[in-house]
Design goal:
Elements (H helix, E strand, L loop, with lengths): L3 H8 L5 H14 L1 H8 L7 E6 L1 H4 L6 E3 L4 E2 L3 H9 L3 E4 L30 E5 L7 H14 L5 H9 L3 H22 L4 E5 L20 H24 L3 E3 L34 H15 L2
Parallel strand pairs: 1-4, 1-5, 5-6, 6-7
Antiparallel strand pairs: 2-3
Helix pairs in contact: 1-10, 5-10, 6-7, 8-9
Length: 296
């Protein structure tokens, strides 16, 4: 009978869509994830709260469980919940969330920290990308890439427009520690796992094809932003009694510029929910990483 731990080996190989479909079907039909948590000594989770933005909500995946937040039951928090079967599972992730969404309403959704209690024993959180306005940055880069594939036209345009990423990072460097401190105060018994962001583009210096209109220099620059964000999240986690999972290495070679059979990131599709976000495989593999960390 397949166990979650066995599929961690599969994760480190080249996983195609066909392999993912077969593995997932076997896992679900066997009841493997739930049994794996016990069989491998991972322990129990009784009260799990998932915080975060669209990269945690599973935006673009089906089935959708919350239209306003574009939340899906195919997200990595849902996989974790299916594995541990906690008595209480609160998924308050929401597309478009920033660190401010922790303490403020987002549309009709209550502040995310309201889901935390003193009984919460596991918290996962993916936040920070929207604080940098990364979606708008990516849109600018696509438009710039349509005009030329040479140099760094996107970075140059953003500098001309007054976009100050250094200032955005400076603000985020204070908000993330505040976020983690508040989580620990509200849920002092919780194991807090900060899940980072994958690189959306090749990290080996190669350019994207015609399906991803970005200048080669901007591809490298966008990856630098992601790496800088992950480093900020990792350092904040280390200094604030939390743990950090860097998904970049797991997603290496599975970016949106790869052939469709190798992609764990959805390609750039205008006005399409889930564009430039992890697909079903990406969320499952992220769940594997969280599961592995919980076992250590």
């Amino acid at each position: 009978m397949p166990h979650f731990s066995q599929f961690s080996t599969l994760r480190r190989r080249t996983v195609t869509t066909a392999a993912f479909t077969a593995a997932t079907a076997s896992l679900l039909l066997s009841g493997g994830p739930v049994e794996a948590a016990t069989a491998s000594g991972q322990g129990s989770v009784k009260h799990y709260v998932a915080l975060g933005d669209s990269y945690a909500a599973g935006t673009g995946l089906s089935p959708q469980t919350d239209a306003e937040c574009k939340r899906s039951s195919g997200s990595y928090p849902s996989w974790i919940a299916q594995t541990y079967k906690p008595a209480v599972f609160k998924d308050v992730t929401c597309s478009g969330a920033t660190t401010r969404s922790l303490w403020n309403k987002q549309g009709t959704s209550a502040p995310q920290v309201n889901a935390l209690t003193r009984d919460t024993d596991l918290v996962t959180v993916t936040l920070g990308g929207n604080d940098l306005g990364f979606s708008d940055v990516l849109t600018t880069c696509v438009l710039a890439g349509l005009a030329t594939r040479e140099g760094t036209p996107c970075r140059d345009e953003l500098l001309r427009s007054g976009k100050n990423l250094d200032a955005d990072f400076a603000k985020l460097s204070t908000r993330v520690p505040d976020m983690l401190t508040d989580i620990k105060q509200r849920s002092p018994k919780a194991r807090v796992v900060v899940v980072g962001y994958p690189n959306l583009f090749p990290t080996d210096g190669s350019a994207c094809g015609s399906s991803v209109p970005l200048a080669k220099g901007d591809v490298a620059w966008l990856n630098q932003i992601t790496n800088r964000l992950n480093l900020l999240l990792e350092m904040a986690a280390r200094l604030n009694q939390a743990e950090f999972i860097n998904t970049s290495s797991v997603f290496s070679g599975k970016d949106m510029c790869q052939p469709s059979s190798k992609q764990w990131i959805n390609p750039l599709l205008p006005q399409t929910p889930g564009s430039a976000h992890p697909n079903s495989i990406g969320h499952l593999m992220t769940a594997f990483e969280v599961y592995d960390r919980l076992g250590t």
